[in-house]
Automatic annotation (TrEMBL):
Enzyme Commission code(s) on record: 2.7.1.24
An individual GO BP term: coenzyme A biosynthetic process
Pathway field: Cofactor biosynthesis; coenzyme A biosynthesis; CoA from (R)-pantothenate: step 5/5
NCBIfam families: dephospho-CoA kinase
Pfam families: CoaE
Protein name: Dephospho-CoA kinase
Catalytic reactions of this protein: 3'-dephospho-CoA + ATP = ADP + CoA + H(+)
Alphabetized GO MF terms: ATP binding; dephospho-CoA kinase activity
Function statement: Catalyzes the phosphorylation of the 3'-hydroxyl group of dephosphocoenzyme A to form coenzyme A.
Entry-linked CDD domains: DPCK
Protein's UniProt keywords contain NADP: no
Amino acid sequence: MKIGITGGIASGKSTTTLYLKEKGWPVIDADLIARQVVEPGTIGLKKIVEYFSKDVLTSEGTLDRPKLGSIIFSDPSKRQQLDRILHPLIQQEIKRQMEQYKAAFIFADIPLLFEGNYETWFDETWVVYVPFETQIDRLMKRNGFTKEQALDRIHSQMPLEEKKQLATRVLDNSKEPQALYDQIDQILNELLGGCC
Ligand SMILES: CC(C)(COP(=O)(O)OP(=O)(O)OC[C@H]1O[C@@H](n2cnc3c(N)ncnc32)[C@H](O)[C@@H]1O)[C@@H](O)C(=O)NCCC(=O)NCCS
Ligand SMILES: Nc1ncnc2c1ncn2[C@@H]1O[C@H](COP(=O)(O)OP(=O)(O)OP(=O)(O)O)[C@@H](O)[C@H]1O
């Protein structure tokens, strides 16, 4: 069974997938793939430099992620251009990895699952949900962002309330992490027919 995991920025996707990995399930990570397709020497990085100029490179020639982030999260047209460059490369690699794994459950953590129309790739989609204020608080704390920076990033994605409506299942991550893990265990037990 293929399960797509999504949510909003800082809603708890990695907290969810870390737990699944600890339980031994394979997890494909779109954020990790997004980093791999822009490593030095890749077509991804070459195309980014063509569009955004060498200003988005560090002195070592790697992608200056905070710099590119500050450009694209405050300018939707530039973000869309970055998406046009990277998403085909990211999609191709997700597909390749999905075909590689053989397990009862294959999970893929894809922040832009609904924005990128990945729904048809999965038997189920799980949305990791937190209320808006919790999302802002956790994002500001984790990244050291101002409220404005946090809001720019949140507003660059489909609202979490909308994602909630589209999901097969909603995981509530507003309480302590153990409450999230209990929900995951309950769903996995249900899907495995209560056998394990
Ligand atoms: C702009 C970049 C370099 C900023 O890097 P940074 O290290 O600060 O952020 P990181 O990659 O850890 O992403 C953090 C979160 O931001 C959100 N996010 C990233 N890219 C986008 C985007 N294009 N649109 C909306 N949200 C995004 C996701 O929720 C992601 O989990 C980076 O986010 C990036 O390369 N984005 C484009 C690739 C992409 O779309 N990734 C999502 C995979 S589905
Ligand atoms: N239940 C929780 N209680 C308190 N803090 C939490 C909880 N779940 C996650 N966090 C914290 O919130 C932040 C965001 O969590 P996490 O990294 O799992 O989100 P994410 O959805 O993977 O983020 P991104 O979209 O940036 O990849 C982290 O600092 C994490 O430690």
